[in-house]
Amino acid sequence: MGKAVQAGLSGEAISGRGVLQAIGGWRGIAEALVPGLLFLIVYSFTKDEKLAVIAPAALAIIAVAIRLIRKESPISAISGAIGVGIAVAATLISGEGQGYYLPGFWINAAWTLGLLISIAVRWPVLGFAIGAFRGGLSSWRQDRSLRRVALWLTVLWLAMFVTRLAIQLPLYYSGNVEALGIARLVMGTPLFALVIIFTWMVLNRLRQSSDDSSGETVENTGETPPLA
């Protein structure tokens, strides 16, 4: 979210490389998608949740080890490993394959609640992100256009989380692990990337509109009125 807001407000043109960086780069995408994909593949063939969690757990440990060996920052790998660890624990505690996806529902529900509250109190979350890159967390509230954009972009992000819950929760309660796993993969990074691109486009257009308005103002105020 932060990268998209920063790039859009700075007028940076949308590019595949920029979007890739905004969603974590190839390594970040792999660390986000591959553990869930491995779990889904193993579970689909074995129907054994205990066996299926071994692959993502091992991969998460290997990812952290590789970063440490290369003396790279292990923060993202560790955060990913923690997420996988929680998913593994939820699976083993529940004794059901769909338990692997339970922590994701908590995250989506938390974002949904937070975004809803921010909209209800008229301090949409995207406004703070915009303000952070404009030099003041509350300065955006003085600009009607920014307030409107912040509101609708926050609604967009809210729609993403609500859509995930609306589609995936029924699959969870039906016990359809394979369909849930596919939905989680499709509505994970790919959907996130689409929201990033749209956010970037909207803020880029807002920046261009502001520049055009500023140019017209300078041009108009630069004229010397005729003498009576």
Describe the structure.
The chain is mainly alpha-helical and 228 residues long. Helix content is 79%, strand content 0%. The protein is built from eleven helices and no strands. It has helices at 2-10, 16-22, 25-46, 49-52, 54-69, 75-94, 102-120, 125-132, 144-174, 177-186, 189-221. Helix 3 runs antiparallel to helix 5 (54-69), helix 3 (25-46) runs antiparallel to helix 10 (177-186) and helix 9 packs antiparallel against helix 10. The radius of gyration is 22 Å and the shape is globular.
Short description:
The chain is 79% helix and 0% strand.
**Secondary structural class:** mainly alpha
Q: What coarse outline follows from CA principal-axis ratios? A: globular
Main sheet record:
none
Alpha carbon gyration radius: 22 Å
Secondary structure topology:
Layout: H1 2-10, H2 16-22, H3 25-46, H4 49-52, H5 54-69, H6 75-94, H7 102-120, H8 125-132, H9 144-174, H10 177-186, H11 189-221
Helix pairs in contact: 1-2, 1-11, 3-5, 3-6, 3-10, 5-6, 7-9, 8-9, 9-10, 9-11
